[in-house]
Amino acid sequence: MSKTLIIGASGQIGKMTTELLLQHEHNVIALVRNKNKLSDLNSVHLTIIEQDLESDFSDVVKDCEQVIFVAGSGGGTGADKTLLIDLWAATKAINFSKEHGVKHFIMVSSLGADDPDAIQSDLKPYLVAKHMADRYLINSGLSYTIVRPGALTNEAASMLISTTRPSDRSNAKISRENVAHVLFNIAQNQCNSSCIFELFDGDSPIKAAVK
């Protein structure tokens, strides 16, 4: 049975996505920095691997058909960790995926990663890292989906989204749980074509909005 590798499975979106896949009996390999953060998950379909993304994690990718990269350096870190995790670790994950014949790579990027110069804020180093990681994936030859969520909230999943950027920037947001359901939908349907889309709370069912 196919395996899905989730890189950053102990983060909020990563853990929600892991839980959704396990509920549907998908085989999941969860790559985390601290396995204790997944101690409440118990499934015969789950393998947890604790490893630093700054090291060589190529063996973890072996025999996986899909990779979901949802790791991030976190808001409390500096530009050094943004470079090492959001860019360099993502680049390594793409290389390892090519090496091991991964069929589809799902990248969780960010709104604004298409044009970091358009947003003047403290987030610019993060957006530059996401931009370069996205470009590397696009040019890798892998089949990919790049998801660029708006500002993340902790609201419960509405299961209704939009892939069209709102005219009012204050509405350019989406719940983490909605993002997780979108990632699950992509993984569940095992896409074999490449696409990029932005993601916001909206009024369209996920299956209809993400084809």
UniProtKB/TrEMBL annotation:
Residues 8-189 form the NAD(P)-binding domain. It holds the Pfam family NAD_binding_10. It comes from the Bacteria. InterPro entries: NAD(P)-bd_dom, NAD(P)-bd_dom_sf. This is NAD(P)-binding domain-containing protein. It comes from Pseudoalteromonas nigrifaciens. The lineage of its organism: Bacteria, Pseudomonadati, Pseudomonadota, Gammaproteobacteria, Alteromonadales.
